[in-house]
Design goal:
Layout (H helix, E strand, L loop, with lengths): L3 E5 L5 H15 L9 H5 L4 E9 L3 E10 L7 E9 L8 H16 L2 E3 L2 E2 L5 H8 L7 E7 L5 E5 L1
Parallel strand pairs: 4-5
Antiparallel strand pairs: 1-2, 2-3, 3-4, 6-8, 7-8
């Protein structure tokens, strides 16, 4: 795959990010519910910063963002929309991409949180636990699975 660098996301990256997110949705079911406006999901009004992973020969292969958390202090933000293209996995890229919001938060005195669907077989949960995240709570999501079933989120 060649050298991979991580940089700030640019508006011109969004179409590629949506393509990768669709591949991840198709292979892994993330996002659980495909949004009517996928660009909007990657550019929420409360988004604080976003990064992409770029492979020399391939282009964008990963994404992560940080967004404000409703009801929390400005010193708390959430990791969101972390995804890695299926073709770019098993290279430790998820952990590398996750390092950027962690460093950004440390530099700005911000505590990071994240929420992940409570599927114990989830590779996302494995990644988060392997990189030092610890579960503090489990709550029912305010949205449902595609079949209408309730969804529980680990925080």
């Amino acid at each position: 795959m060649g050298e991979i660098r991580i940089r700030d996301r640019q508006p011109s990256d969004l179409d590629s990010c949506v393509d990768i997110l669709l591949a991840v949705h198709t292979s892994d079911g993330y996002l659980m519910n495909w949004p009517p406006d996928p660009v909007g999901r990657l550019t929420p009004a409360d988004g604080l910063r976003a990064w992409v992973a770029v492979a020399d020969e391939v282009g964008i292969v990963g994404h992560v963002m940080v967004q404000a958390v409703n009801g929390e202090s400005p010193q708390v933000a959430s990791v969101a929309r972390l995804f890695v293209a299926p073709k770019a996995r098993t290279h430790g890229l998820g952990a590398r991409v996750l390092d950027h919001p962690r460093q950004w938060a440390a530099d700005h005195g911000i505590v990071l949180v994240l929420e992940v669907a409570a599927d114990e077989r989830s590779s996302a949960i494995t990644l988060y636990e392997r990189t030092g995240w610890r579960r503090t709570d489990t709550q029912r999501a305010h949205w449902t699975a595609p079949d209408g079933a309730p969804v529980f989120l680990h925080r």
